[in-house]
């Protein structure tokens, strides 16, 4: 087994320079491009609720060659705007490059290898994931740099991971630990599995009332000391999630986030002498709501390699992230664009100011705000009118106060809030050239794996 204090193993796979990361832009570091491309050869059928009957029996590639448009798709429906996706990927990549930080976007937002590839092609350093099933999917598509933003304590899962690390010397993996007990359990399971390479871990710092993470720097230092004593683990840095500290962009919320990030920076200083010689330790934080504060507070820490984990930015939204995104908080127009849209048909008008649409909780996200009616296809604009969605059932949306703008049979475009609970409802999502076009063309079909 490698000495956990040496500078070998896969650590350099995570902590090369940001300049090297962005120099690879356009080649897609660490993903099996052939496996992603092969998804276009997958036959379509009734298992994919977005796939119309005329596509059944054809591969995605063959169906797209027929030139389908939005009109050929049924409702309920969720689509991605291809132009908005491209814009968001480029915008975030450029922002990180200028800030001098690495980006390992949270892949759990989309669980879509084709979108991970787009992010890697734009210069992302790796992919972040939330649990072991997601890691296995990423490995099936050849992702070579994975940050697991969670603790991995499952003995069977650790045995599988040990095998992956032993079989692929280029596989760079980071996990989290937040207690002495979690260190003990990981070490015990990895010893039992006969691990050949140490698993690199980040000590997670949490906050009062937050999610996981050691409560306070003293507890985190104890966790780091336990890692240094465990021969199957290697201390690679620190991590945390500031999004658990606040949920808005109020002065109080931003101050709480800054306070937490400063504690994370102080922890980095306390552990400076504990790291193995070689590449600088990883300091990782940053969702899609406060990544600007992460850069302001952590990017200039001495001897560190800052890794953001923002994920929702790729699709952005017309709700929660539209209001809290760092690139929109100044009151100006956000550089990110909402790429997700729901499409639903009016199927009933049982009351004068009530219309029922054929999309509900099984089709659209609702945990961070209800969908917003934007326009009627071929008809009126609804943004800025009194029309609103007031509730969702499993398969229906309640549209109120649309007047005569939404007759029975009309198809409405809906903006959605919180992409993380949108992608999981669809195994295949059509990509449109532009959702604003009079007759959008279907240019792709994004496969998700949840």
Report on this structure.
This is Amino acid deaminase. InterPro entries: D-amino_acid_metab_enzyme, D-ser_dehydrat-like_dom, D-ser_dehydrat-like_sf, PLP-binding_barrel. The chain starts with 10 loop residues before the first helix and ends with a strand. The model is unreliable at 1-9 and 17-28 (pLDDT under 50). With 450 residues, it is of the alpha/beta class. Strands 1, 10, 11, 12, 13, 14, 15, 16 and 17 form a 9-stranded mixed sheet that branches. β6 (199-204), α10 and β7 form a beta-alpha-beta unit. The longest helix is centred in the middle third of the chain and has 20 residues, at 251-270. The protein has 13 helices and 17 strands. The chain is globular, with a radius of gyration of 23 Å. The protein has a domain at 26-33 and 85-314: TIM Barrel.
